[in-house]
Structures are given as structure tokens and as C-alpha cells.
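Lecture 7, part 2: worked example. A protein chain together with alpha-D-glucopyranose.
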Amino acid sequence: MVYCFFFLAVKRMQRGFLFVNRTWWKETVVYQVYWRSFFDSDGDGYGDLEGVIQKLDYIQDLGAGVIWLNPCYESPDVDNGYDISDYYSVMEKAGDMNTLERLIRETHRRGMKLMMDVVLNHTSDQHPWFIDARSSKQSKYRDYYIWRDKPNNWRSYFTPSAWEFDEATEQYYFHSFAVQQPDLNWDNPELRQEMYRMLRFWLDKGVDGFRLDAIALLAKQENFPDSDEPENLSYLTNNPKLHDYLREMNEEVFSKYDIFTVGEAGFTTPEQGLLYVDERRRELNTIFHFQVLDEMPTWDLRRFQTIQTNWYETLKGRGWNSQFLNNHDHTRLVTRYGDDTRYRAESAKAFATMIHTLPGVPYIYQGEEIGMTGVRFDSIDDYHDVAMKNKYYEEVGKGHDPKDVFESLVKLSRDNSRTPMQWSSALNAGFSTGTPWIKVNPNYTSVNVEEDLKRPDSIYRYYQALIRLRKQYGVIVYGDFATIPYSDADVYVYTRRLGTERILVIVNFSLYEKRLAPIAEIALDKAQLLIGNYPEVAQPDTFRPFEARVYHLA
Ligand code: GLC
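Predicted complex, written out as C-alpha cells:
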């Protein structure tokens, strides 16, 4: 009887508040491969899956445990693969199904896992379902999409209206992104079953999880009421029924496999975020929230701290977070938040130190590990990003000066992070022997993998060391997180604690040297330095520009 109570109490603790289950995906580091810009194996100007296979050792050597592969399904490629016309095949630019299967095997052979990026919110307008659906109101697929006689006043992410008139049947269809990306109707149970079948197809092939594109958008507001603030697109996300769909998806698919899921969830607060990742709710493992990337155009440490603390406190003991400062949709971190000239290496490492020691799964976006920077092309014609181009023509169409419009879009254009991976100073940065689909960043002659690896202060090796530390010190993965209030608005000080183990992280996010006042009761000269981004520490209390250190405290 006593034993029984004890057993129940332990069970309750495991399920309940403040218990953290240990799993492989919490301990991993994810490396994102935007394959079309990674490595071109056949000289057609597009990176491809064979190219990813050829560079798997590079990713493995870095220490990443999971690869997130951007969508490579059949697609007219209006939005770089996020407009899928066949979920069951591979687009020609990327390769073919055999190559993808080989990629999965080769990834596994190296002890890594592969996560597919899947788009459940919309298809391409060239998907057979949509072609059939738009042909007649009686189509069996009509209800897979969303049709109305009249549009409301909502914008889409990429266009002035979220509705497009379709001549054939004289109704409007709904699209949260480009006109060529009609949204699916998740209210339809057959559609949902189709999607679960498709997810199982990939899992049965051996993929280890999904990055779920635009997942916060699956459920729509009933009756599409007009918005008082049409420019604020939050009406697209986190609507009722979303969590019913996710719970069903988990029950029907995810719960049957040992996989990792991360949902892309824009416009999501910590309280809303908890609904996705609370382990007791059985929906997703983690999400990407965008309170940093969408709301902090330039670096603001105080704001960042508040966001971190709020998320940590809300998810604590219940769900897991993600840590990232760039991806294929957001300008590279050294350009946006660090310094991409004089302190490029130092700032790259400073941010990496933070990302890899904050609570949550760290993500590395290809090229971040060598401090690749954003880009500036001279003309709108050099850009490919559908979001940027649509906005450009929309604003120019309203009569605004093309030069001003261009300038306003350049800094945050998604193409900042989509230029080819810079492998060497050879032709096209060693990315392709053909003409790259998008121009190479001209700084490739000095910023490239070969060059970085030659340097004693290599950024890649610093990332390697950070990843090694995470493997060595469980406290970095599982430890409690606490910010140490510090008066200097450029210096971030925090600890992680697990049992008797404690680490201390200090990062100076400024271009200036800082002399630190004593921090709590900690004697830096007695603490063990685990890693730092300057060759040696001459004065423990002095932090040079973008200096970062991680200490182990006895
Ligand atoms: C996500 C993707 C982005 C894409 C959009 C529409 O935000 O990351 O690249 O354009 O969804 O699918």
C-alpha cells in the first residue's frame, strides 16, 4: 500500500509541474540546410540533395545531431518550395526520391537525424486538389480549400488581400501567403486524414521529425470578420480549433513514432506557446516563437532578456523552447544584431555562446557557423524573395519613390540569408560550377569555410566547442535558468543550475570594453573558465567588445 502511494506520487510528479523528462531531442543541436543554397553537385546553379550528402561530414564534424531540411517536394517554386504541388515526390532541382532516401540513410549512418519541413497550411495552386477544386463548385476537393462570395478586409503575408477572385466559379479563395498558395480547410476531416497519411508516409521512410511550417495558421476565424487593424496580421494565427487539430495530429501520427516536432508559430505569446508544447497536452515538442525576430528589428538586450525570462517562466517544467536568431526568412544574425565588419567573428561567437547556453534547443542556420553576413544587391531584379518583390511592386504601384521603397526593404529581405553557402574563395564561393540561382555574396573571397578553418580563432571550431560543452555538461541542457540583474544595459549575465552544478554566462553585447562591477558573490578569478571567445583572459573583470565567457562554478 505504501509502495503504491509512493508509486502514484512519483507518477504524478513525472506528469506534473516542474518535472523535466529527458529525451534525445532536448539534448541535440539542429543544423538547418537550405539545400538550394547549400551545395550544387551537378552544376545547374541550384544546391541539391546529392550536394547535402557530399557535405554531411561537415555537418557531423560540427556536432549537430539533427538536420532540418527545407521543403524539397514537387513545387512550381513560387515561394522556394513552400508551395507544394505533390507531397509525395521530390522536386527536380533537388534531385529524386532515391537521393532523398540515400540522404536519410547517410544521415543516420553518421549518427544524425533528419527532419523534414512540411507545409500543412496551404498547397500550391498547381496541386491537383486545387486544380480540381477551382474547376467547379461540385468538385470533390472544393471543400479542401476556403471559398467565399465576398472577401473581408484581411491582408495576407505577401499581398494586399488574403482573397483572390477565381473567374471559373466566381468565388474568392483564401490565401495567407502568395496568391499561388491557397490555404487548406482544416475543418474538413477528409483533408485532415490525407495530411496524416502523408506525414506517416515520410515517417515510415525513416525521417525523424518535422518542422511544421506556419502551423499557427491552420485554424481560421469563424466567418472571417473584418479587422479594425488589417495591417496587424495576428488575426491569421492561434484561432480556436487549432489545438484540436494538433491533438488529433499527435494522436494519429506523432505519438506512434519517436520523433521531434517543431512548429513555426508567429504572433504567439508565451501563454499561447505553452498550449502547443505543454508535455501533458501532447501536441508538439517545441515551437519557434517570433517575439525576437518579428518584434526586435535591431538588437535590444533589455527587451531580449524580458522575452527570454517570460518564455522560460511560462514554460518551466512543462514544455521546451527553441533558441535561434536567424533562418531562411530572417537576415543573418551578425548583420542584423551583431557587427558584420570589425567584430564579425567576435559578435558571431558572442551570440552563439548565448544561443547554446540559454534553455531550449539551439538552431544553427547554414553559414552561421562561419559568420556569414547579409547581402546588399544593387537592383530589385537581383532579388528573388516573393515577399520582398510583391511588397516592392505594391508600394511602387501606390506611387512611392522606387529608390526609397527599395532601401526600406533591403535590410530585412529574406534573400539576406539565402545567398549560396560560402565554401571557399573559388568560383561562386565553391558552391556551384554553374550560374548560381541567386548571386553569391561578394564577400565570399574572405568569408568562407576554407578561410575560417585556417584561422586559429575559427568560428566553426568555436561552435564545435560549444556543442561539445552541451554534451559534456547536462546543466546546460537541463539546468534551471536565472538572470542575474545587472546594471549595464549591454551585458547579459545568467546562470544555469542543476543540483550542485552551476554555470555562469556573461556576454558583453557592445562595441566597447566594459569593466564589470562585482557580480553577486561570484569571484571570477576563482571560477573555471569553460569557454570564451577571446584567446585569453587577461583581466577577469574586463570584457572586451562582444566578449563572451562561460564559467563553471564550484
Ligand atoms: C514560412 C516559411 C517561409 C514561407 C512561408 C509560407 O514562414 O518559413 O519561407 O514563405 O512559411 O509557406
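The two ends are 41 Å apart (CA to CA). Residues 79, 82, 119, 177, 213-214, 264, 328-329 surround alpha-D-glucopyranose (CB under 6 Å). Keep this in mind for problem set question 3.
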